[in-house]
Amino acid sequence: MSSLPVPKLLRAIYVHNPFYLISACLFVYGLQAVFRPGEVDFFFERHSVAYIDPWWLMLSLCGVTLLMAVTAYLIVRLGKVWEDARTLVLVLLLMFLAISVSFDEIVTLASWDADSASTAVSLFVFGYCFSIGICEALLRGLAIRLPWGYRGPFYGLLALFYAFPLFLSPEVANVTADAARWRIAAFPMLAGFLTLSLLPAVRRGSESVRDNGTPWSWPWFPWTLFAFLAGAVCFRSFSLSISFDLADARKDFWDSAFGPYLLVPFFLAALFVLFEIGLVERL
Q: What is the rounded distance in angstroms from the CA atom of residue 160 to the CA atom of residue 195?
């Protein structure tokens, strides 16, 4: 039986085993509901440990992330199934983003812990160090060669995802509503500066990642990673405005100061990187 034709765009984003992604999304949604610190009762009584303890939420998210990382390692080492590994790596990036986003609501609430500021800092530092540890363990365990010209900007963007909420929190940074909006607008600009730090790696050309330890050639490696991060920057900009726009006169939950124009500095930086790729690779 002949296989059905698959459009090129669909083939480029096709996931051979979508259950990795589906299970991760359901797990994150369930954890966020169970550990929600808002004014709702869900599965647990109010003021119970499972209802409000942020460290259990962090450890649960890190646990499922670690499970995904171990699975990626085993299917490559034992089965050489690199296509499923690619899916799991992208799911890991989704989990890193989910860990940073999941604590926005906790950071904005001062009532859940008397030492909320120090606890919030500890949570984000732990989450970031855990993410870096998972990345380094996979790169070294699978013998994947990702030059520091790419690895450094990647870790810098991860640090921005984790650390930026601390500069928007009234409890941690003591900011006003207007100052919070200006800082939210600065997020894509900072992401743009970090994106420009890819230019030295781009100038080394595709030859620098030819023997990378994976079956993927340039530009799929490493630019798939940064294309995914570009989408994460856009989502994170929107989620920050939802979580930290401190306006008192909101019509509903989705009412915020976010606008697509805030992403212009980031897109401009991405265009510079694409332009440099075209010059170096003569495309």
A: 12
Would residue 222 be called left, alpha or beta, if left means φ above 0 and alpha means ψ between -120 and 50 degrees?
alpha
- The DSSP bridge partners found for residue 44 are 42
Alpha carbon distance, N-terminus to C-terminus of the chain: 39
Separation CA 169–CA 175 (nearest Å): 7
Cβ atoms within 10 Å of 219's Cβ, excluding its own: 15
Q: What is the pLDDT of residues 144-176, one digit of tens each?
A: 899 999 999 999 999 999 988 888 876 666 777
What residues contact residue 82 under an 8 Å CB cut-off, 6+ apart?
A: 76, 214, 215, 216
Tell me: the pLDDT tens digits for 209-242? 988 888 888 988 899 889 989 999 999 998 888 8
What does the alpha-carbon distance between residue 240 and residue 187 come to, in Å, rounded to a whole number?
9
Could you tell me if 15 and 84 are in contact, meaning their C-beta atoms sit under 8 angstroms apart? no
